[in-house]
Design goal:
With about 170 residues, this protein is mainly α. Helices cover about 55% and strands about 0% of the residues. It contains seven helices and two strands; from the N terminus they run H-H-H-H-H-H-H-E-E. The chain has a two-stranded antiparallel sheet with strand order 1-2.
Length: about 170
Amino acid sequence: MIDAVFADVPTLERGVGWRAFVEGLLRGQWQLYREHGWLARALSVTRPQVIPNGMRHTESLLSMLEEHGLTPSEAMQVHLTSMSFVRGLAIDIESEQEAEAETGVSREDWLTSRSSRRCSRAAATRRSRAWSWRPISIWARTPCSSSGSRASATGSRSSSGVPGERGGAPDS
């Protein structure tokens, strides 16, 4: 089943620079995980399966890195680190897809509804430590105001900053 998934992925053209090539492979890997939520959990780094179509991508990455001066050992280290990084980010895709199906709430909506709490905590930490940076809610990609409330494009939000919630202090 895993090999069949990798069979549909085209190999990248070699005419691009090494960074664009690596980025293209990693974005392709991410897309596979998004389309097949089970895939990240099914792949093993510690006990790798024999996946001929997956090896096409591994071999193309290793040869590209070696052409740019890395030793075979260094190229393998870059391969394992970068592929494991993407897989690590994707490991919860399946459970996230299940949660969205069960609740009807998208990841973005869930994060946005909680961003004001994160901003309030970040602002309190900033004030207590006298840091001079503006906190950002990285999860919802929403900038926080200097007071710690979530910045809003429309300026309208509940007093707690959580859509559908009526005032009250954020939980700690």
